Amino acid sequence: MGIEDGMTLYAGCVPTDGSTPRAQAVAAGLVSRWRALGMPLAGLGGIVVTPACGMAGLTAPGARDVQQLCIDTAKELTEHDLD
Description:
Blueprint: E1 10-14, H1 23-36, E2 48-51, H2 60-79
Parallel strand pairs: 1-2
């Protein structure tokens, strides 16, 4: 069973190393990999965007920033034309 069969993909793609990429850049990386797998773009809305690693070492504001970037990236995947 895989994502083709409806399994949810949790994509650990938002950096927790202190870097601050834009949501559009994170989403573009996901789209690129998704296309490389030959998956239909319509399926991107089913991806759960998560941090790339743990957040235990982050400050509270840093952890909030990472979580907000996860939210913003997910919105990019569902609200914008990705073609």
